[in-house]
Amino acid sequence: MPLGAQAGNSPLRVVILGGGLTGISTAVHLKSPWVLFEKESRLGGHARTDETRGFHFDKTGHWLHLRDPYTQKLIAELLPDQMVRVERKARIFSNGVLTRFPFQANLHGQPPEVIQECLLGFIEAWSRRDQAPPPGNFEEFILQKMGAGIARHFMVPYNHKLWGVHPREITAEWCSRFVPIPKLEEVVAGAVGANPPEMGYNIGFLYPKRGGIETMTRALAARMQGGDVYLATSPDAIDWRARAVRVGGEHFGYRALVATLPLPELVRRLLDPPPEIIAAGEKLRCTAVRYLNVATRTCPRSDFHWIYVPEEKYPFYRVGIYTNAVPAMAPPGHGSLYVELSDRGPMPRLDEILPNVAQALHAAGAIHAPDDVLFAELKEIQYAYVVFDQNYYTAVKTLTAWCEANQIFPRGRYGSWTYNAMEDCILAGREIAMKLDG
Ligand SMILES: Cc1cc2nc3c(=O)[nH]c(=O)nc-3n(C[C@H](O)[C@H](O)[C@H](O)COP(=O)(O)OP(=O)(O)OC[C@H]3O[C@@H](n4cnc5c(N)ncnc54)[C@H](O)[C@@H]3O)c2cc1C
């Protein structure tokens, strides 16, 4: 059943597939009539929060970084006095110590021989920086910009765990925005402990005072008007020639289709697409993420918001503590954490992995003792990280050009098939709404 009933079955309207932040933002900003189909029973996509026994968990940490004046104003209007600004405490856990993020600019605290290797490698790379050819892949990018030591001790093993593929399988283009490259003087200062406490593109973040990130998603969704929302509904097929989506025997005509569902899922729903579109769709690769929601009996031991864990011997690559940002994410005196697991083999059983994870959390200083874990839940995000491999650019370009020529507009993190953050999705929804409204 639709949540509103205003648009009627008009081919002049816009159909939106997917009710994550991109789909919601599209609906919020559209002046034309619209209808939105969301396959889950709740809006929000990745920007949702689950609650178990008073403990709140996002789909792993969803910290809001706002850089654009429009989104800053929008969020301030949507949630007056309901967001808290948190100064980031991000750490690296490696060689048994917690050091500051980013690793490459904060070597102080690592064992002396690690600092020496990383510094010498950086200086060597720095001295050759003007002669280096464009990097052919992400591993080459790391070696050219940061040298062999930083590559070996952090960048390569960490990114291998995160992406689920070796950095040499990933192209270099995506990373310039997200990978901080320090200057030589910053690396030296960081090696002797003289850097400012936090650096990088996101030194602070916003977060709702209550209810996790979904509080923000709901506030945005409350602004939707002029259309219908169908929950727990997924189109069976997209008749792109007739410009209609087929949903349980009904046809919904459209003048434009905004597709925020994952791009391969869009291709699968197209009725008889051209062979080159099927072939391009088959080239798209993505890694899943398994994670644990962890509730603790006491407040966590460390004060960090999240840590990066490059070493292979630990079963996770990132751990975050919600309650260190906002204590209301758990009942008083308790903690709630997320643990992003590196294993991508067959789905494990929770009771098989939990003892090892709890030990490792204790070793990383996150919790007081392994038996501090009150309960844990094992979850999976099927579409988490798009793999920017050699086929990526041609496949995405082919698909996007064909879709747009047929009034289908793939948007958002998985529609555009990219790596981005919540703010980008809010802006992408606004941008496509403005384009379609003319
Ligand atoms: C592990 C992880 C951590 C992250 N951390 C952060 C962070 O700290 N800060 C930050 O800013 N960003 C973070 N992000 C990124 C952020 O989650 C995304 O940029 C954003 O939420 C994507 O929104 P979207 O609407 O484009 O996609 P989604 O949220 O994926 O929404 C797409 C929607 O389409 C629906 N759908 C799928 N198939 C169909 C179908 N067949 N029919 C109808 N509907 C369908 C889905 O159910 C979903 O609701 C993180 C992402 C991941 C994976």
Compile the SSE list and pairings.
Elements: E1 14-17, H1 21-29, E2 34-37, E3 49-52, E4 55-58, H2 69-78, E5 83-87, E6 90-94, E7 97-100, H3 112-127, H4 138-163, H5 184-191, E8 204-208, H6 214-221, E9 227-230, E10 237-239, E11 244-247, E12 250-253, E13 256-259, H7 263-269, H8 275-282, E14 286-296, E15 306-308, E16 316-321, H9 322-325, E17 335-341, H10 350-363, E18 373-386, H11 392-405, E19 408-410, H12 412-415, H13 422-437
Parallel strand pairs: 1-2, 1-13, 2-9, 6-15, 13-19
Antiparallel strand pairs: 3-4, 5-8, 6-7, 10-11, 11-12, 14-17, 14-18, 15-16, 16-17
Helix pairs in contact: 1-13, 3-4, 3-5, 7-8, 8-11
Residues 17-23, 37-40, 45-47, 60-65, 234, 260-261, 265, 289, 381, 384, 412-414, 420-423, 425 line the site of flavin-adenine dinucleotide.
Summary, kept brief:
This protein has helices at 21-29, 69-78, 112-127, 138-163, 184-191, 214-221, 263-269, 275-282, 322-325, 350-363, 392-405, 412-415, 422-437, and strands spanning 14-17, 34-37, 49-52, 55-58, 83-87, 90-94, 97-100, 204-208, 227-230, 237-239, 244-247, 250-253, 256-259, 286-296, 306-308, 316-321, 335-341, 373-386, 408-410.
